[in-house]
Amino acid sequence: MTDPVKLTADLVRCPSVTPNEGGALVLLERVLSDAGFDCTRVDRGGISNLFARWGRKGANRSFGFNGHTDVVPVGDLAAWTHDPFGAVIEDGWLYGRGSTDMKSGVAAFVAAAVDFVATKPGGAILLAITGDEEADADHGTRALLDWMAETGEKMDVCLVGEPTCPEQMGDMMKIGRRGSVNIRFTARGVQGHAAYPHRARNPVAALARLIARLEETPLDEGNDHFGASTLATVTFDVGNPATNVIPAEARATVNIRFNDIHTGESLIAKLRAEADAIAAETGVEIDLATRISGESFLTPPGALSDLIAGAVQTETGRRPELSTTGGTSDARFVKDHCPVVEFGLVGHRMHGVDERVRVDDIHTLKRIYTRILTDYFA
User: Fold this and answer.
1) Are 307 and 285 within one domain?
2) CB-based contact 247:203 (threshold 8 Å)
3) In terms of domains, do 306 and 281 share one?
4) Active-site residues: which are they?
5) What is the rounded CA–CA span in Å between residue 164 and residue 348?
6) Digit-coded pLDDT (tens) for 143-193
7) In terms of residue numbers, what domain contains 279?
8) What is the pTM of this model?
9) Residue 160, phi then psi, degrees to nearest 5
10) Residues 360-372: pLDDT tens digits?
């Protein structure tokens, strides 16, 4: 039987901080190839990606898995108890950057899949593993899905192995995600002496009025599957060292996490109208620069969520909550290819100093993934 803890440790020892591959995908390609998977590197834009398939291309039934091996930077190395790429196991915990997010999830599914295909199931198992989830994600899962469309590879359903459980194994799975859009405002006025404000046109005051209006106005009240959309101001920048000068320019950025009541474009249009209104009131020009990181989506409860939830309940005794909370994930891209659900480890230690995962949870996750495959192909 393939040991998911050893595989996790081997992956953690690969220093795959985005965009470096660090040897992680090379390792996975070797493990999967040895088990009979057809593997293809789908690198694009300086990003390393791996596609692997067991079974016949175009099989009448296929199960997909999406995950990533890239990790966020270590941060303050001196604050770590153990080498962040040492994969030290102590007191039942495996320490290391990416141990939670999400090398253990990848390792658990690969271990489950390698053992499962030895039973010669009907259909196909497809893995789309990227090295670009923690950064801009322009050439990661997107590149894999583009390549799959070009070559006729198709997942009927997909499981994303991101950490989804808030407190204990099995307490939550994701059937959707909020969208995310960043909007950067640049307000341009007329510079002048602070003692004669009537001779200037103050972009700081105009931008502050806009931000206050946005912060004070709810976007919606949520719906059956999503909470209310949120808007957060993340920067307000003037860069003016002088106390007697009204500057000519001010900038601010807001991030909106939105439900399926909106689209990224509808929110951009809404905030552009608010900016135009403030500009008309103050005479200060306000421009917008925008980036939609992902649209909100929902995989309605049904066969796929029942399959995942049933396997989780069998192995943990807990029926997971169906949730759409949290940040974005690469499921936002997969949802355009096939129905997608996320389930993985407890995630509250990811991205932090001394990131770590319970060894027992890695074994449990492999059992859950094995049961999912068994039930899907039964």
Assistant:
1) no
2) yes
3) no
4) 70, 133
5) 9
6) 999 999 999 999 999 999 999 999 999 999 999 999 999 999 999 999 999
7) 179-294
8) 0.91
9) -105, 130
10) 999 999 999 999 9
